[in-house]
Amino acid sequence: MRIPHLAALAIAVASLQAADEAKPAAAQPATPPPAPVKNLTPDQQKQAWNMLGYSVASRSQMPSIANQLELTDAELDLFLAGVRAAIRGEAPKFNPDEIGEGADRLFTERVQGKSARWLKQNADFLAKVDADKAVTKTASGLRYRILEAGADPKPTKNSTVKCRYEGKLVDGKVFDSTKNRNNEPTEFPLNGVIPAWTEGVQLIGKGGKIVLYCPSELAYGDQGQGPIPGKSVLEFEVELVEIVK
């Protein structure tokens, strides 16, 4: 989401206008004047402030913190009250030194508890996958199930491909999908993605579809990425739309 920088935009427009005025009249292209910007309605002004907060928060560590600590609605309200106080330059109404060590322990136990449950969910998920006779396991640990083989030839690890896909965590939560981008395929080199994709997409041809079950060591490892927690097993359904020549 992009927040318009109106002041910078105004300066840029003024500079361009000044440069145009310095040119000979014959050199000035006949361009229509820009359309006037409509004033926001009261509801749209509220949306603008909401958009600003959303943009700032989504680019910060706050979503990750809330996710790792599994904040309840009540805890999130308290968290946001602290954010509001910090933005306004207000001092806390308590002594942080008195609760510092206890707070660290609370947060650590919350994160460790989630991590232990998440590891068990991942292990249980892989055990269920391994019990499915329609799933093949490779030497690397990748599990896959081919839905449609597609046409020959198949891509190599050095190929650039276009794919539609949907990625899920073991709890079924979708963390990324081309369906959310008008179902337009994404183009990428196979040697520039996670190892599970590099290996798995080579197993199908154009028009093929495959389900990949990716252990964390073939995905985003111990650290995770964005909405993907560390040590996550991932499930992808991938359609190979095109091998780019």
Order of SSEs, N→C?
Answer: HHHHHEEEEEHEE
Low-confidence stretches: 1-25
CATH architecture of one domain: Roll
How many extended strands?
A: 7
What's the rounded overall pLDDT mean? 88
Global morphology: flat
| CATH first level of one domain | Alpha Beta
Q: Termini, distance in Å?
A: 33 Å
CATH topology of one domain: Chitinase A, domain 3
Describe the structure.
This protein is of the alpha+beta class. It has helices spanning 6-22, 42-58, 62-69, 73-87, 96-130, 195-200, and strands spanning 136-137, 143-148, 160-168, 174-177, 186-189, 209-214, 234-244. It has a domain at 134-244: Chitinase A, domain 3 (Roll). 40% of the residues lie in helices and 17% in strands. Strands 1, 2, 3, 4, 5, 6 and 7 form a 7-stranded antiparallel beta sheet that branches. The protein is flat. The protein starts with 5 loop residues before the first helix and ends with a strand. Residues 1-25 have low confidence and may be disordered.
